[in-house]
Amino acid sequence: MNITTATAANAAGTVSVRTTDQGVPVELHIDPRELRHGAGHLAGQILALSRRATLEAAALRRSELASQGMPDALLDRMGLPTRDEVARVQQADDEQRQPTSWLRSV
Length: 106
Prior knowledge:
It is built from three helices and three strands, in the order βββααα. By secondary structure, the chain is α+β, with helices and mostly antiparallel strands. A three-stranded antiparallel β-sheet has the order 1-2-3. The longest helix has 29 residues, at 39-67. The chain is elongated and about 55 Å long. The relative contact order is 0.14.
């Protein structure tokens, strides 16, 4: 059985998640320094990275199936994203994470 996986990591490389194209996490790496930010923050990062890795793995799966001759219409019906769709989602996620201010609360 061929299982497609992809890995996503935060900008610092301190948290990474590898998932299948179905969203099943198969590997998780957390640098101990990340624990200082609290469980809620860490959980949010893990979920966001899981979604990103799942999309990437699904796009890889689509590419694999397309290279084996599966028609685009069928791939669309399967819900497998294109590389362009993944890039748009990732760009939207990145824009949401941009700081609105460099000031921090005191």
